[in-house]
Structure formats: structure tokens, C-alpha cells
Amino acid sequence: MTHSIEPAPTIAPSKGLIALLAISCGLIVGNIYYAQPLVGLIGPQLGLASNRESLIVTATMLGYAVGLLFIVPLGDIVENRRLLVLTVSASVPALLLAGSATGSHLFLAAAALTGLTSAGVQMLLPLAAHLAPDRIRGRIIGNVMVGLLVGILIARPVSSLMAAAFGWRAIFFLSAGLMALLAIILRIALPERHPRQHHRYRDLIASLIEIPAKTPLLRRRGLYQAAAFAGFSTFWTAVPLLLARRFEFSQRGIALFALIGVSGALVAPIAGRLADRNLIRPGTICCLLLIALSFLIAAWGGLAGHSVGALLVAAVLLDAGVQANMVLSQRELYALSPSIYSRVNGVFIAIFFTAGALGSSLVSPVLGRAGWLGICLLGTGLALAALGYVFTDPAHAKPSRRSPDQQTDRSPEH
Predict the structure, then answer these.
(1) Total count of domains within the chain
(2) pLDDT at 407 (0 to 100)
(3) What CATH number does residue 165 fall under?
(4) Are 111 and 35 a contacting pair, CB within 8 Å?
(5) Which of 35, 157, 241, 348 has the smallest count of CB within 10 Å of its CB?
(6) Which residues have C-beta within 8 Å of that of residue 341, sequence separation ≥ 6?
């Protein structure tokens, strides 16, 4: 294989291009979450037993995980625009199949394919990093990340509102149309990017084990975000149940609560600027403290205070802390070799996404045994455990954070 230096960009991408990347992130990532609040509608209509309805979410998540590990890494060897457009285009038939499925097996297959093709969202972030000059890379990643988190947060309330108005199939047909339009826009608007190194696909996939094994930074940032995202998933899985049972919220009320919580995503550009000023470590500490604080406020609002306002403040602070920590993590990870951006991003997302799925799976048993207080203690404990891990990182030493490929990538050819 050969490696060559990839020149760093000196001119910042246009605001219009950054806005397109952010909007694309939000639209694509929504495909992963649309079905989550609809399982109670989809399952009975397709003949899926109540104890198997969660397979709808599981199939989508498994498809997404496969895409992260086996499609996203192609961004390190395949021209990026073509790969992204093909992946987005492939989501159209998957979504149409989901919307028109008449049986559970067909729908589950469509859900898995939808998750698989939704991995295209994780091609956009490395592309944004490639296009950004180093001096403002954190700011640009933060701006694009706003779109990603907004997409995650509003997908569920939007699908709930669509289902209430037009039936559960409508959201899949609507998204299929949006994906078709988006593929055309991306094909026209995105610049080409040809990776400078040549790997065999087999070696590329094998490196998914080698890179985290030899890159302490990836393992550390992955664990920070795993703790944060597990708390995030736990909260957003449990709080709709609390709002419905204790506060007697309707489905529309829960959707409105989630929409207001989106405002926490606005912190992303601020986190990017902190990262560009080399304030990643203090920023990480603040993020984890903010997450812990949010769960303490949530405990007060859900128990002693019975305050929806306190729960809403907690939701905004939690979203802000998780979002900011992700921006800080990706800004630091994208200081590694450009030749492995896609693989590093895929592994990083897979680490904390798995933790998020685990956090969601714990909600039912924790609520059953310890109630809302148990949920809040779990979230606080995760944030404080990650905070403790931060302080095991040498604060003043500057250990080598090179990736396995970085040494060779600095030379003209190997």
C-alpha cells in the first residue's frame, strides 16, 4: 500500500456548505430514530407480538452498527462524495419498503437496511474535518454537530406527530422523498475528495482492531462519550414514561417537551471554539460536571419538586453537556492522521452508540426496582465515573497520540 501527504486546506469552507452538511446530518440521522416511538403502532398492525416489538428498534440499531464498521471506513479509500451519495440513495428503497411493508419480517429487514444506510451520517463529519483548516476545525465540527443532535432529538417527536396526523407509514414515505432530494443536492454541491492512500478493503477492516488498540486517545475519548451518551439515552428513554405517568402528558405534550430540549444543541459551536483554543481538558471536565448536575436537577423535578420546568432545564443541560463533549472529542480525534478520519470516527461512534443502547436497555429494570431516583443516580454515576477517569490522564505530559498509520502518512511514500 502507499501513503502520501494530504495537504491541509487553507481556506475555510463556505457557510452555505457547512449549513448543508449540518442539515444533511440531521435529516439522515433521523432515519435511525423515527420508528422508536411508533413500535406500539407498528407491531400490532404487522402482527408482531408485544414481547417482540423492541426488535423494530434492535434491527435498526444493528444495521447502523454494521454500517459504521463496514461502510463508513470506506471513506478512507473511496472518493467521499460518490460514497456518500450512493449511501444516501440506497436509503430511499429501504425507507419505501418500511413504509409499505405488510408483514413483520419484511419491515424488520427494511429497518435493518435503513439503519445500514443511515451510517452515511458518519461520512459527513470526517468530510467536514477534511475541508476545515486546522485553526477553525473545532468550530466547523461544532456547527455540523448541531445538525446531528437536532436530528436525533426531533426525530422522535416529529414521527409521533406525523403518525398522529397521517398514520405511522407517512414518516417513512416522507423521509424517502427527502433522501432522494438530498442525494441530488449533495451530488451537485459537495466537492470531490480523493483519499491519498491505497488500502485493500480487507486490511482496512482489520485496522479497525489495530487502530483503537494502538491509539490511547481514541479509547479514552470513546469512554468519556460512552458514559455521557449512556446517560443521555437513559434519560430520553425514561423521561417520556415519567411525563406520561406522573404528569399525565399526552403524546403531543411529550413531543413538545423533546422539541424544547433541542435548544441544548446550540452549545456545539461554543464547544468547537473552546477546542480550537486548546481548552479540551477543562471543557471535558465542565461537560461531565454539567451532565451530573442535570441529573441532580432531574431528580428534584421528578421527585421532590414534581416540576416539569426542572425536568426541562435538566434536559437542556444534559443535551448541552453531551453535545459539547462530543464536539471536544471529535476535534481532538481529528488531530490524528487525516488518512484514518473515517475509521476513527466509525470506531468512536460505535463505542458510545453501543453504550447508549445499553443505557436504554437498563431503563425498564431500573425504573421497576428504583424508580425515577434510580434513573437519576445511574446518570449521575456514569458522569462522575467518566470525570474520575479524566483525572487519570496526565495533565501536563504530552504523550504521543499518533495513530498506527500516522507515522507512515507523514512520509511522502511508503
Answers:
(1) 1
(2) 40
(3) 1.20.1250.20
(4) yes
(5) 241
(6) 75, 76, 126, 129, 130, 334
